[in-house]
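Input.
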Amino acid sequence: MERTVILHADGKQRCPWPGLDPFYVAYHDEEWGVPEYDGRALYEKLILDGFQAGLSWITILRKRERFREVFDDFEPAKIALYGPEKVEALMADPGIVRNRAKVEGTIIGARLWLEIEERQGFSHYLWDFLDGRPLQNTLRTTADVQAETPLSQKISKDLKARGFKFVGPTIVYAFMQAVGMVNDHLVDCFRYAECAELGKAGHPG
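Output.
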């Protein structure tokens, strides 16, 4: 795989990891690296990154709509009430990743999300680690991208201490990249400046 930006047919330079797959390129252009401040959306992405463990993100991305269907659009209040019958139904669904530990971890995470949301807001909880503002990296090639950082280790440790599952520092860093807590678009990618601009305002509240 290329390590520097790729020039696409539309004249735009992009990070190399989506390749030329239109579905993946759209995710790169529209979602990845955009600061996300909605608590429910942050929960969804954290859970899906946990399901990714051992798999590629494009695999999860292609299954995302089915995940949303069977997990009640990742509404924590609904997922927190799932019992054994629902777990078995999920385990029988070929449209998602059928991993019992990850399914059960999703339910545990929903209950923990509700506790944090009531106390301080899940979005505030996560963004407070960065004082509400995204980190702006200046990466030239994918070789400069780290798998984890001291901050992702710190967040991972805190999430684990609260009881969250599948939140190791590498998973947490991938999550941070995706939800714009850190801008890891390569500096020559057209989205780098756009995401940097989106992050200027910081957390809204």
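The longest helix spans residues 100-119.
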